[in-house]
């Protein structure tokens, strides 16, 4: 994950994780991450879109994710939950990004930050979400 967008996703995942765990105001988290040296090589605009987009559409994103889960959302690991929310946002709101890219990026984030074999869980859920949210693109229409 070396592109500016991949770096933005990585930072957005970290910011979402912090938001989920601490309940700190998302604007404060956004500002702090944008001021950090790690954001220099990231697509900062995309980072903010992802972070704020997930938080602003949280209810709808969770409603999309929940039916394809095999357990309640509140039992999903916090890192995996953040990856699923981030990827669901991209699947639903960023139709310019191919669904395979969204899935691949989500799986890579889960491999890097998630629990052992958590990426397999994320991959399975994102595959189901892609069929649900990108029917034409996946050929399931």
Outline the structure in words.
The protein is an all-alpha fold and 141 residues long. The chain has a single domain (4-134), classed as NusB-like (N-utilizing Substance Protein B Homolog, Chain A). Helices cover 72% and strands 0% of the residues. The longest helix is centred in the first third of the chain and has 19 residues, at 4-22. It starts with a helix and ends with a helix. The model has no long low-confidence stretch (mean pLDDT 95).
Topology:
Elements: H1 4-22, H2 26-35, H3 44-56, H4 58-65, H5 78-93, H6 99-113, H7 118-133, H8 135-138
Helix pairs in contact: 1-2, 1-3, 1-5, 2-3, 3-5, 4-5, 5-6, 5-7, 6-7
Helical content class:
over 70%
User: What is the mean predicted local confidence, pLDDT?
Assistant: 95
CATH class: Mainly Alpha
**Tally of helical segments:** 8
Number of strands: 0
Largest sheet: none
Distance from first to last alpha carbon:
31 Å
Number of self-contained structural domains: 1
Which CATH architecture is right? Orthogonal Bundle
* Low-confidence spans: none
CATH topology: N-utilizing Substance Protein B Homolog, Chain A
Beta-strand residue fraction:
under 5%
**Order of SSEs:** HHHHHHHH
Structural class: mainly alpha
Q: CATH H level: which superfamily?
A: NusB-like
Morphology call:
globular
Query: What would you report as the Rg, rounded to the nearest angstrom?
Result: 14 Å
């Amino acid at each position: 994950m070396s592109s500016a967008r991949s770096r933005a996703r990585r930072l957005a995942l970290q910011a979402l994780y912090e938001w989920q765990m601490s309940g700190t105001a998302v604007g404060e988290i956004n500002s702090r991450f944008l001021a950090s040296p790690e954001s220099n090589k990231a697509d900062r605009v995309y980072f903010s879109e992802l972070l704020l987009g997930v938080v602003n559409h949280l209810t709808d994103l969770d409603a999309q994710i929940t039916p394809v889960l095999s357990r309640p959302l509140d039992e999903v690991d916090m890192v995996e939950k953040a990856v699923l929310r981030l990827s669901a946002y991209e699947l639903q709101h960023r139709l310019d990004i191919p669904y395979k890219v969204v899935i691949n990026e989500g799986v890579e984030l889960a491999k890097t930050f998630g629990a052992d074999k958590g990426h397999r869980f994320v991959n399975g859920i994102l595959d189901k979400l892609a069929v649900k949210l990108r029917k034409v693109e996946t050929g399931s229409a």
